[in-house]
Amino acid sequence: RNLQQPDIGLKPIPVEQDLMFDAVNVPEGYTANVFFSWGDSVEKGASPWRPDGSNSWQEQMKQAGQNHDGIWFFPFPDKPDEHGLLVMNHEYINPTLHPNGLTITEDSHGFKQRPEHEVKKEMAAHGVSVIEVRKQSNGHWQKVNDSDYNRRITGFTPMDLTGEVAGTDFLKTVADHAGRQVLGTLNNCAMGVTPWGTYLTCEENWKNYFVNRDAEDYEQRPAHHRYGVAQDKNSNYYAWESVEPRFNATPDHNVAHGGYVNEPNRFGWVVEIDPFSPDSTPKKRTSMGRLVRECSTLSLGDDRRMAFYFGDDTRGEYVYKFVPDQVYEPGNSAANRDILDHGTLYVAVFHNDGRGEWRPLVFGQNGLTRRNGFTSQADVLVHARRAADILGATTMDRPEWVAVHPQTREVYVTLTNNKHRGKKEDQEINAANPREDNRHGQIVRFTEENSDPTATHFDWEIFLLAGDRPGATLADGSSVPENLVGDIKGDIFSSPDGIWFDYQGRLWIQTDYGDDDERNINMGTNQMLCCDPVTAEVKRFLTGPRGCEITGVTTTPDGKAMWVNIQHPAISFPASDGKTRPRSSTVLITKDDGGVIGT
Ligand code: FEO
Ligand code: CA
Ligand code: CA
Ligand code: CA
Known about the structure:
Elements: E1 30-37, H1 57-60, E2 68-75, E3 83-90, E4 105-106, E5 112-113, H2 116-124, E6 127-135, E7 141-143, E8 151-153, E9 158-162, E10 181-183, E11 188-193, E12 199-203, H3 215-219, H4 222-225, E13 270-273, E14 283-285, E15 297-300, E16 306-311, E17 319-324, H5 333-336, E18 343-350, E19 355-360, H6 377-382, H7 384-390, E20 399-404, E21 411-415, E22 442-448, E23 457-465, E24 489-490, E25 496-501, E26 507-511, E27 527-531, E28 537-543, E29 549-555, E30 561-567, E31 585-591
The structure holds MU-OXO-diiron and calcium ion (3 copies).
MU-OXO-diiron binds at residues 91, 189, 204, 294, 313, 400.
């Protein structure tokens, strides 16, 4: 191992146990300021946010969405540490979007009905925001209002479907006979960036927006049932199907392409966005496979070949990577434009002896054949989970983000938690997922053979098991059960989710657990921690307001400005007055002496 030890000088902070805590704590010598909240203006002509939730859906189209998640700072080349585009995901919506929550009625058949203006506002509050940001001469960062770069991408935005599956029957609907254009991106959780300067937003729990009411059809359609699309009266989340017919994926045999039965196949992809071209059409890159995808994290080799790592975040699902055929060609945007349309998708097998291998999802190989019901590579990609089942992939404890060390290319994966581990027949305990009823999660790290992102073999180990310290007690005085005890050196946490290496090799860990769950009593509110990958020592850097998760982190190249997302706070953050409705927000963190964050 030739990891370089990063400089971590911050003075860690304690857990935040106050049940009414409604702010952000950072260590001595740091300042955290609210920078960008749900409802803030993005596009030109945006209306001010109204605290009673009464902004219209048309107004929401120009304002920041809800549930900020993955985020990235793209510097402008002339002043990279002072000027850039901040791009972030808006994963889903909260009842706070409307004046009095979601209006839901039922028709005489028991189907939920929603008002059209609410559904449209909900679709408008999903997607991505792009904002131009600039450091002022007084040292303060500001969003540039009325910038031509400022852009909202929503559940309505037209996007191209590209790559292996584009134009095949799997993607055709009554509204798109060509199978090449889809409206919107949904449930954008974590992200990735390419070496050529584009943003990759990842579609996670899209399954919850669709319903197939035909039980017989559902049963024989793995594109629905293997991914958890609802087979019920309504979709799992917001019953948009009552207003927008494309969310009703029940087959209609009287119209072309079965109506919208294939609409769910048009989600679950990596979406590539060029933030520097505000008029560009986002592209869903289907060759990268269809998952309940958390992230798409780059590892770039010395030979300019690369891999993108993905977590498929559902209990017992798998870790994947995509290896493009082409190399990255610096400065040649024409050559790089469609790199993500050609390559090989692999799924990970974690053997119990610490070795691992990547098995390719390639039609015609290793059982991905007609005999097993596959008809083409497009079929394999649409049903990537089913293909991975056949390949014998290792079931994991909900893979979330992946981080790649900037020098050594070691890969770290968060496995956030999994209450089914050791409880369900198909999720037996294995070496990489060693705890029954795993409530606190773990981080696994692996090294590709020769540190080559395109390798097909790797060595892996458990980096740390999250959880309580040995001998800790719960609120009722009982000792913490064995399966909830971790081995963290330093500050404790539960349920690692966001994970990222900064430019100098500090490993940042973000958490997503129920801070009202009695099993998390010793953890306090959700947090962000700074970890030394050489010693595995963990120092708590930030604690958030009650009810939030901490997700998404980025810095300027010089590491002196850091943006972190506070998702779904519960009380009144960021107003923190005990009465204003809470808003997901990006906070900007700086060091009071102007230094690098974490030192
Ligand atoms: Fe949206 Fe897996 O977190
Ligand atoms: Ca997440
Ligand atoms: Ca999570
Ligand atoms: Ca979330």
